[in-house]
Amino acid sequence: MAIINGRRVRPIVTNFQRFLRAEYAGGILLLIATSIALVWANSPYRDSYASVWATKLTVGIGEFSLSKSLFLWINDGLMAVFFFVVGLEIKREILVGELSNPRKAIFPIVAALGGMLFPALLYFAVNGQGAGAHGWGVPMATDIAFALGILSLLGRRAPLSLKIFLTAVAIVDDIGAVLVIAIFYSGAVAWNYLLLGLLVLLALFAMNRLQVRNPVPYMVLGLVLWVLILQSGVHATIAGVLLAMTIPAAQRIDGQRFVNRIRELLVGFEEAGEKGVEIIANRQQKSILTSMEHNVELVRAPLLRLEHGLHPYVSYGIMPLFALANAGIYLGEGLGAALTSPIAIGIFVGLVLGKQVGVTLFGWLTTRFGWAQLPDGLSWRQIYGVAWLAGIGFTMALFVADLAFTNEEHLLMAKVGILGASVFSALVGSVILLTSRVTAEESA
Q1: How many CB atoms lie under 10 A from the CB of residue 39?
Q2: Residue 305 near residue 215 (C-beta atoms within 8 A)
Q3: Rounded mean pLDDT of 286-297?
Q4: Mean pLDDT confidence for 245-258
Q5: DSSP 11
Q6: Is it the case that residue 13 has pLDDT exceeding 70?
Q7: Which residues of 39-188 form beta strands (DSSP E)?
Q8: Which residue from 397, 396, 414 is spatially nearest to 405, judged by alpha carbons?
Q9: Beta strands of 349-401 (E only): which ranges?
């Protein structure tokens, strides 16, 4: 706690620091949920694991209802909320974040492209002619929560600039995953539903242009959009990203006007105080507090309000629940078979070898050709260590695998490959970063 003018003042926590804390804690919960799923699926009660997630749940009334298994409600429904938050993060990064400055953005963008291209090519080299050829998109994914969680555990060996670089790479990776899911892993398209969805999307953009800032109308139309996209055959989670693109990101008042108004209100609040009278009984102070809240809403964009409001629910609820429902692999029979399975081998090689080579090589090429510079304060060893951590594919890779493989045996092989590669990448990446040199500036 800092001392300013003789007073103890709490340090200001930036949005990115809050994001890192949420990702770190979310990564720990993901690890716990994964462990529970693996123990459950390999215990004497493993039959109950499958039966729980197969439980049917119906939402709606009469003909206007959806009936799906609990597993699909998580993967199609709750994951749409996850992709909505991902979409908000992507929009923010493009508007004001690391991807808003072309000169700064080129390094993580090109590095991320290499980290998607090489894993897909290596997987295809192993499975191009086999039954698992359709799974080439699985090793392209990076799990930002797990990767940032590992970085946070490394303390001063992982400076803030390195976390920002990994976050930028993961955001670009998420954009690629969304496009791959939308184009290659959606079913046959029902154009009538898709056309209706387009009309709803246009209505959402119209609300944005009309400066509608209340999130409720967006959420209502967003739910309609999700149902229409679900019925169209395009994967329903894409509705989350599309909805995020329509959320207003503009402020109604700028920062200086906000500061001036709050200063005036604070003076009025102090003057309105009465000795021995609580705020709850002071009409004038209650009115001033309402005015303060109104001004906060004017200066805070709806995009930031929704992102910060939903992020804890996604990190601490949706993602661990997804892991619990998807990571339960029975290893009694699958582990031995996975050692020789082209699907598991392709995913392992893609995540472990493809990520580290793709991210590092493409990043180096941007500096070699003079397109960008190495981020300030970082070494190539640290970039290489993060490239290994990018091989932690877990959440997004499991999600893509579930879309890519309809055969249960193939899906099992894919999950074994994902888990094995993620653990190996985390261990090696951590060792590389722990043995990297830390400058005085980085450790400050």
Answers
A1: 13
A2: yes
A3: 86
A4: 87
A5: P
A6: no
A7: 56-61, 64-69
A8: 414
A9: none
Residues with Cβ < 8 Å from 289, sequence gap 6 or more?
269, 279
Distance between CA atoms of 234 and 195, rounded to whole angstroms?
12
Cα–Cα distance, 13 to 81 (Å, whole number): 26
Which two structure tokens, joined as six digits, stand for 416? Answer: 């074994």
Q: Check whether 19 has a pLDDT greater than 80.
A: no
SS3 4: strand
User: What gap in Å lies between CA 48 and CA 137, rounded to an integer?
Assistant: 31
In whole angstroms, give the CA distance from residue 60 to residue 69. 14
CB atoms within 10 A of CB 155: 11
3-class secondary structure, 69: strand
Beta bridge partners of 2: 9
Mean pLDDT of the chain: 85
* pLDDT greater than 70 at residue 37: yes
What is the biggest distance separating any 2 CA atoms in the chain, rounded to whole angstroms?
81
Model confidence at 15, pLDDT cuts 50, 70, 90, reads low
Token output for 6? 């003789």
Going by C-beta distance under 8 Å and a sequence separation of 6 or more, which residues neighbour residue 230? 66, 76, 236, 239
